Amino acid sequence: MKLAIAGCGRIASVHYEAIEQLITDKNYDISISALIDISEINAKHFQKKHQIVSGIFTGLEDALNRVEFDSILICAPHDFHETLAIRSFENGKHVLLEKPMAHNLNSAFKILQSSKSSGKVFMIAENSQYWPEVNCIHEHLQKKAIGEIITARASFRQNTSSDIFDSYNLLPGDELEKAWRFDKKSSGGGITLDGGAHWIRPMRIWCGDVSKTTAKFGYPHPAMEGESLSQAILELDHQVTGIFEGILTELTSFSPEAPFRITGTLGELVMGVGGFGVTLFNQDFPEGKKILEDQGYISSFLHQFDDFYQCVKTPGRQPVASAEFSLGEMKTAFAMERSDREGKWIDID
Asked: For residue 61, what are the domain limits?
């Protein structure tokens, strides 16, 4: 695989470290052909940090004209996704695109159409799909370890001063007043569409698609134009009521409660990050039994790129989750926004 990376920010580094591990552990044939970023300073910083020997370009078109690559990892701000993805498909490239697919649904539909016309691999980088703890819970739910699901809860809580990806601070070469994630035009929304999507995906894996929602937004983070507090009731396909909470603040020290809890007729499954793993509570284990130790949230990026690589290398192989499936998080986020604005339940088609 000859890979170009478009957008040389912090999340691109997380992806690249996963790629390096696959090269080392599985001897995957992956080389970086191009680093693309509107800031040459940021691209050079990324190149030096990871000791990559490749060309640096400040635009996709220049890279397309000057170097060979068959695949591209797009980690740019959300409002760049449409142009970068469509031009990549038009030039016969396989695409791994950071979530969300785009900053609005219209752009997402255009990207999907272009991907279908190209016949190339298209995968959305929603790493929660590959999170070992999420899949462990899914397996136990299939076995009815807690009986029938009654309700599920996901709480995404974060402050910008201790974000593990440091994604709310400017990079050295950024010519902006504040990080693009705070800008609603660039991101397409607020905490729900951005970080919150990683918490909505597991609920969809476990309980089916969100069919309707009612939500209330708040704005506790002074720098974020979109909502930085999102609280919603979700009605999911399997007749499950879900609770979603997303909150972004500047300095809040949050209590160490597990962000995911699924309650059934016979027990509960609880999971989290930073040492939580997965714990099962039922009649056999009323005090709780840890059924999976913490695998590390970052491990999901390794499994994710592994899937992309295998799809590129294996004709006819499809990603674990289709690109279309990722529209679910977008539709849910935009329905929440509309519910907050109109003060009523919103159906999601």
From this structure: 2-125
Q: Do 174 and 186 fall within a single domain?
A: yes
Residue in the block written with tokens 């009605």: 235
CA distances from 140 to 74, 238, 259, 263 (A): 34, 16, 18, 12
Are 115 and 134 in the same domain? Answer: no
Among all chains, which residue has been given the structure tokens 């209590």? Answer: 255
pLDDT digits (tens, 9 = 90+) for 240-289: 999 999 999 999 999 988 999 999 999 999 998 877 899 999 999 999 99
The reply to whether 97 and 186 lie within a common domain is: no
CATH number at residue 274: 3.30.360.10
Query: Does the pLDDT of residue 239 top 90, yes or no?
Result: no
Token pair of 153 as six digits: 């809860």
Of 1, 11, 4, nearest in space to 52 by CA = 4
**What per-residue confidence (pLDDT) applies to 81?**
99
Query: Any residues with CB less than 8 A from the CB of 293 and at least 6 apart, and which?
Result: 277
For residue 48, give the H/E element and its range: helix 40-50
Using DSSP's 3-state secondary structure scheme, residue 141 falls into helix
| Residue 94 φ/ψ, nearest 5 degrees | -75, 145
Asked if 197 and 153 sit in the same domain, the reply is yes
What does the pLDDT read at residue 172? Answer: 82
The whole-angstrom distance between residue 12's C-alpha and the CA centroid of its chain comes to: 12
Q: In this structure, are 226 and 343 located in the same domain?
A: yes
What residues are paired with 56 via a beta bridge?
35
Number of domains observed in the structure of the chain: 2
Write out the E strands in 115-259.
Answer: 122-125, 149-159, 210-218, 229-236, 240-249
Which residues are CB-neighbours of 278 under 8 A, at least 6 positions away? 133, 136, 137, 140, 269, 270, 271, 290, 291, 292
Residue with tokens 């879900």: 242
Whether residues 181 and 101 fall in one domain: no
Residue the block writes with tokens 């910008």 = 160
Within-domain flag for 307: no
Tokens representing residue 12 in the block: 């691109």
Q: Is the pTM of this model over 0.85?
A: yes
Spell out a b/e string for 234-263, using b for 16 or more CB atoms within 10 Å of the CB, else e.
Answer: bbbeeebebebbbbbbeebeeeeebbbbbb
